[in-house]
């Protein structure tokens, strides 16, 4: 993720059915930032939608979890 300023972001992760499975709040610095998710080992394999809310901006992407 590329941030144009230091700010708080909210990360929302949804499973394939649209159910919210994780919410995280992070402080990011200006520039490129990586946000790690560490407790996904108990999740079912499949496709998850990741939404990052940063001020008025919304970034959406998908991840695939394979076991």
Plain-language structure description:
- By secondary structure, the chain is mostly beta strands.
- It has one domain (2-65): Macroglobulin (MG2) domain (Immunoglobulin-like), CATH 2.60.40.1930.
- 0% of the residues lie in helices and 58% in strands.
- The strands form 2 sheets. Strands 3-2-5-6 form a 4-stranded antiparallel sheet, with no helix packed on it. The protein has a two-stranded antiparallel sheet with strand order 1-4.
Secondary-structure map with pairings?
Blueprint: E1 2-3, E2 7-14, E3 20-28, E4 31-32, E5 46-54, E6 57-65
Antiparallel strand pairs: 1-4, 2-3, 2-5, 5-6
In short, what is this structure?
With 67 residues, the chain is mainly β. It has strands at 2-3, 7-14, 20-28, 31-32, 46-54, 57-65.
- What overall geometry do the principal axes of the alpha carbons give? elongated
Q: Biggest sheet: strands, sense, closure?
A: 4 strands, antiparallel
User: What is the number of helical segments per DSSP (H or I, 4+ residues)?
Assistant: 0
- The SSE order reads EEEEEE
């Amino acid at each position: 993720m590329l941030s144009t300023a230091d700010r708080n972001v909210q990360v929302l992760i949804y499973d394939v059915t649209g159910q919210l499975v994780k919410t995280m709040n992070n402080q990011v610095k200006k520039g490129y930032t990586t946000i790690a998710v560490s407790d996904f080992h108990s999740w079912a394999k499949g496709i998850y939608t990741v939404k990052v809310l940063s001020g008025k901006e919304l970034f959406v992407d998908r991840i695939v979890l394979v076991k």
